[in-house]
Every structure is written in structure tokens, then in C-alpha cells.
Amino acid sequence: MADWSMLPSDLLREIALKSNTIKDLIYFSAVCQSWNDVFSKVKPDWNTIKSLPWLLLAEPKPESLPWLLPKPKPKPEPKHKPEPKRKPKRKLKPKPYNDSTTQPKSGRRNILSMDENKCYKLMVPQTFGKQCWGSEHGWIVMFDADKKAELFNPITKSQLSLPSLQTLPSYPVTHDNYYYYDDDDDYYIDIDDDDYVYTIDSKKLFNMKELVSKATVLKIPNVDELVVMVIHYPQNNLAFARPGDKSWTPVLTSCTDRYLKVYYVMSWNERMVILYRDGSLAYCEIGTCKPETFTSLPKGMLREIVNKQQGDAYVVELGGDLLVVFRYRRYTIKYAPYEYHTTHFEVYKHVWNTTMSWEKVDDLGDFLLFIGHNFSTALHISMAPNCQRNAIYFVDDETYSWRMEYKQGRGHDTGMFDMASGQVIPFYQGRDKISKLFSPVWFTPKF
């Protein structure tokens, strides 16, 4: 009988690096001590390999939040009884936060493994009550209602501090902002739900839903240094910070024009690429402040989709090519109780020639895309054998209705778009993809 512990370390290293998922690599480490020793050495190299993302599903019901006060709905009084005189409505103040009573006791959150289409429960109480954005580098960006910011690795449980959102660069508020907020206001609003009337601190709600619209984790090449980019209030301004920084640094963008607002950020060819709201694209070195425009989408294409709330746009790299993915939604009461639904996608590839044109892509071949407002990635089907080739996997990241309507929640508009048939197919039916404050996000598990 073969002694697996005696295999050469070089061979074990090659086997470990062939692991497509973090679960396989963990199983590899559990075989014996010699395999575990190789696992410890190979982790940094495995982290540089693209792998299949996981889906962090919504946390338990949001009444676990200390600033979201649930109270049972009062029973309706009989019609024949005279209505008693009511006292003037007073402001309701949040109860003091008590970690032992407000967070779910288990501290677990469901994570969907895409290679198995199976949910696992992961102990991540650190994510409760926080807005999360995943990344392809294993880290999740977390912001809480008190503007605290940090990076969290759900696999290793490591945490890195980021500057408070209180230190974001300030800009003048103009009439065309998404939402006007006066920091001197102090009021609370009641929202009806099926089981409760929630009393919400409007300042906290603003911090969770409006202050930062998107967050992305990038990595500076060759130095293994993380940089977090945030698109933030009031005019989709862009700022960045490294773990340990004291404040956020602004990225100089032409925000004097109402349409030159940042819409998406990603990394490509070891540079940061910025998509502006008017359709222009710029790039610069990661962690620097002066991007240069290098191309633009066809005139009016992005503006037509975004300004009329008809969909979203994402930028992703596939085999060295730069792709822009347009997502189209339909808003109608047909999809009650939710008012919107993704109908289809269009993909365009940037062509490097004298005209810097864009070419429509109708077939992704043996590749598939995972898209989201935090990050998007392309993988070969060999790395995701149980997924659909020539398909786009997407999560619900709609913002317009979600910002304006607390009742609706989001997460329902999650699925897979088959490029060949043009059909949208749900890949997960669990109720824990729906949340009034926190929707599912992609993240790639890394050590």
C-alpha cells in the first residue's frame, strides 16, 4: 500500500496549485503532516490564482441592528369604539447596543458555493449589521452605521482597519445629488413590515445606504499592498485608502460636470480603470490620484441606461480584453411584490485600433462572467465545471428603488443569463438572498 506522506514536496506543490477551490486546498492540508507543511508554503502562490467566487448571502433579519428598533404591530381596535385622544408623537431613541442580545446567537451566515451549488454556514459575526462589499482578493470591505470602516477576511478571520468614513473628502452639495442630507437633522421614521413596525434612525440609514455607493479592493502589483477605492456621496466622488491610513485621499476627477461622475472601478493590466457616468474611461497607477482618459463608450450609451434607471454597467477583464457589460432591467408591477427584474445583458469588447472602437460580443465561448457592483471577474469553464459556460452570473445590486423604498428590500433579482438562449435562470431560491438593508455579494475566498 502506498504511503502518501512520502510523496516528494515538489509534486505535492504542483497538486496543491491545481486545486480550483479553497475547499479542495483545505482538504489537501488535512491528509497528513507533510501535506499540511506543503499547504502552508503554497498558500501565497495559490492566492494569486483566479478561483471561483462564493456568494455571501444576506444576514439574519435586520431587527438585529441596534438602531433598527422592532416593535410588534398594534392590533386594530374595534370600529365601534371611539378613538381615544392620542398624545403627540415623540421621538424614539435607539436602545443601547448589547452585543449579546442583538446579534443572532449562532453568529453564522450562509455562503453559497458556486462549484457545488450548495450552502455552507460560516461563522462571521463580524459582518452583522454592516454594509459589505466583497473582492477577488479574499477581503470584504465593511462599513457600519457609525462610519467605522475595516477589511475582513472571512476565511482567516483577519481584520485590517481603514479610516473612518468621517474623513472622506468633502464636496459642495448640489441640487442634482441623489439624496440631500443635513447632518444637523435628528429624526426617526416608522416603516411598516409584515410583522413589525421598524423605527429607523435616519442618520444611521443614510450612513448605511447613501454615504458609499460602491467599494472595491485593488492590489498594487509586485508589493502585495491593498488599496480600497470608494465611490461616495455627494456626487459619486472617488477616494482611496490603504489599511492603517488616517484619512481617505481624493482621486481628482472632473466632477464639475454633472455627468462626469465615477460609476465603476476595476483593475486591468496592473492599472486602475475608472468608468465615468458619461461613458468615458480613464486609467492610472493603482493608489495614485490623477487618471487619464483613454477611450469612451459610444455616445450616450451609458447615460441612457443609468440616468433613466434602466439598468447598470460593469467593467471586466477577459483574457486581456476589456469588456463592458450592460444589464437591462424592467420596472413594472408585473413582478410584484418586487417592482424590477433583469431582462437581458449586452457585452462589448474594446478594440485597440486607430478608432478605439467597441465590438459587440454575442458569445463568450468557454468563459463565464460573475458581475456585481463590488467587483466582476471572468473564469474559464475548466475552473467552474458545475457552472454554465457562455453565461453571466449576477446578483441584485439595484440601487434606485432600494435607496428610496425601505419596504421592498433587494436580493430577489439574482440569477444566471444564458448568452446562447437569452434566458434568465435563477440559480438560488433561498429566502436568505432577500434583505431590506444588505444584499448578497460576491467574494473570492483566499488565505
From TrEMBL:
Organism: Spinacia oleracea
SMART domains: FBOX (SM00256)
Underlying gene: LOC110805958
Domain F-box: 7-48
Spans annotated as Disordered: 67-110
Protein's UniProt name: F-box domain-containing protein
Record's compositionally biased regions (Basic residues): 82-94
